[in-house]
Amino acid sequence: MSKKSIWLLLLGSLLLSAAAHVFFLHEWTEGRFMAGPNDGLSQIVPFKTFIYEQYSKGTFFYSWGFGLGGGFYSQLAYYYSTSAVFLLTMCAVFLMESFHIIGPPDFFFWLKAGLIVSILRLSVILFVSTLVYRYMNIHTAAAFSGAAVYGVSIMYFRHVVFWEFFADAMLWVPLLVFGVEKIIREERSLLFIVTLSFMLIHNFYFAYINLIFLFIYMVFRWMFPLTESELSKGRQLKWFIQGGGISFCISAVALLPAVYGFLNNARPVYQQEIPWFDFTDNILFSSRFIILPSLVVLFLLTRSFYQHRVFAFFAALSLFLVLLHFSPLAASAFNGFSAPQYRWEYVLSFTAGGVTGAGLNLLRNTHFRPVFGSVAGTILLYGLIGYAEQRLPISSGQLKALYAFILSLLLMTVIIVLLFSWKKKKWTRMMLQGWVLLSSVLVVNVYQKYAVSDYSVHQVSNKFLTSDDFNSEEQQQLIEKIKHEEGDRLFRIDWMTAARNNTPIVQGFNGTSLYSSILNEALLFFYWHDLKIDMGRESVSRFATLGSRSNLHSLLQADYWMREKNKSGQAPYGFVLFAESENYVVYKNTMPLPFVRTVKNVFSEKDLQSAPPLDREHAMLEGIILNRSSTRQPSKETNHIGSTVMETIGAAYQQNRLTVSEKTGGIDLIPDRKLLGSGDFYVHFTIENLDGKGFSLKVNDYRTTRKHGASIYKTGVNDLVIRVPKREKVSIRVPEGRYELKGLALYEEDYRELKMAAGKEADNPSFEWNRNKISIDYHNRSGEMYMMLPIPYEKGWELSINGEQQPVEKANYAWTGFALKEGINHIEFVYYPPYFQMSLFLSLAGILGAVIICRRRPICRLKNPHFKEKQNGEN
């Protein structure tokens, strides 16, 4: 291609991309944004804001502000911490900020920037895809039309709106195919190595999906040789294995920590039955994942096209992927053999783009009669499917309007195809190719309006983002008041809006909640199993609050508790009013514990294996719990359920079966009057809806929710511990239905252990935390055995005391502890991502290997000069 052609193609890609975003460009002028109200506002934009803030400060690996503390480099690799697109964006933003072109980028900046980045990203996708299709010997204009079918697709906008980083996966598919073809046809592997390396660095999850597609692509390529002079399969395998090994090494510095973060996550096994096939999705009219353009269907029904290898290859591959789309089992395989997720269909859009480009090439030399037969078959297929679907009772007015829209596009496609087949004029060819672009733009803009914006995204507006449901000025003023009170001390605030667990990132404080697909397994088990902390909402991807349990608040530095005023009665014991506004209150802990704690008592996890969480809390206050034997026996609290009167309200309870016959009902526990006074009750029980329904649960004023049995986000943990202030009656309430309710227990907490720990005179050591390094100087005068830090335990921390390496131990189930020496302890605690040194060495070795095997030859040609189709060559 000439330089002029390349510049024209770049301009065309940018204009087409902008046209595809017309709806959201208009929304932008109306104060609404291109981001989903759920994950978009709760994960995507907050994580961008957080990572930029950390990286721009020179903090690349660890932050105490990431949830309860964590290595965000590995845990956020699924999102943006190693994303090539986001890193490039950050560099541009950092330069603009450095030269004072923009101010410090905040949440609103990254929310607005998403639209600009999307337009540029889609432009690159269109440009690169055109080059790849052109390399497959498809004429440039037809290749650009095929690229439009790929890039300007509803899957792109579904991804970019709801989970923006998903859309980056579409960048790598054409480049990966380009690299594969360069090996097969020219025995050049540099493009393959560079693409695969960046793809593995960028996002391990979509690299996994793209590698499955790569395997399928290679199998079909071997079935459909496209040129006369392709490498033998053996030599191809040699180059693929060699290039794959080098790419793995190059990417190791990002890939290995990311994979560790994924493996160190905890997800319950998906237990629902996964069927082989489910044909309910309508990919011609109303699918949420992919709508095949009518021109693609028409080409697939044109028999004569299959005599040409390029078309036959793309058509066979597309039909196979269509079959996989209707298989929940395949959706599970693409999702790591977990719950079925339909995130991979962008590869089907890519092969459909190949069908479009190859078909447009062939249509120029095809007679009118076979085209007319294909048109008739296409109309019949659409008519049958549309008629059958419209007769279903689920059909709605909006759905019928969508069907009418698709059928009108089909009618125009048919008219233009027949006109071109009849006339074979330049203007009719331009009309057809222009119609491919226009129809693609129309479909995605209609999709953005009715399936995206009207569905939920219209809520994402300036008004909502400054409301009490997200981040109001009133809330921010209270947060700033707390910060002013505490200064530089490390502390946490137990506060979040609605169900937005990443409120601390949005509002700029260290909190007690986090929402991410990748979380520290030790923390999740701490919540689910070890301490059984109810989060107010069951979910595998979140942790939040500390259940208003004062012991945990003090242990984890969560010394402030902020809520709406109508929930102020749930404040933890020992917290007093600190500040209030019109709608909110803030309570402050009167029994805080130091950040760095030293202890003499060591308890064994084994000795506490059958102990209730309250006993474990007391052991954490009196000493340290380690996974080793100990002669120190923990104290045991009394279960008072035997002296508690039990009454049913609107329900029947027999043999662990609770049947609620009224709208709400349950059990009242009436404890012995001797237990009443100051302090709290800890109520234990296991509950599950026998019909698999989700339900809300109330214990006195405390409310939580449980997911339905088929939810892919259900934890599978039904053992609950609910803390409530002492009252004469503890009321457990659930909606009408059948439940299994067992293991009832009632414990009294008078906070004697917390008061003793808070009143202990301690020689609080000085410490300094600088990025990924903590320095502590401690003079052990009193024979303390262990030091504990409220930092979650995870691989990557390295400890040295007085210059000697020492082991880091998992203490108190999920936290960090280590043995002390007598006398002076100069402690250095440093964090690097897991396997970082080894992975850095592998990356350097991989780069050296790539330099050695890739001789100085042109990286790629935009069109293979030796291309000659194996059968019935085409021009």
UniProtKB/TrEMBL annotation:
InterPro entries: Uncharacterised_YfhO. Keywords: Membrane, Transmembrane, Transmembrane helix. It holds the Pfam family YfhO. The chain crosses the membrane at residues 77-95, 107-132, 138-158, 190-218, 239-263, 283-301, 310-334, 346-363, 370-388, 400-420, 835-854. PANTHER family: INTEGRAL MEMBRANE PROTEIN (PTHR38454:SF1), INTEGRAL MEMBRANE PROTEIN-RELATED (PTHR38454). This is YfhO family protein.
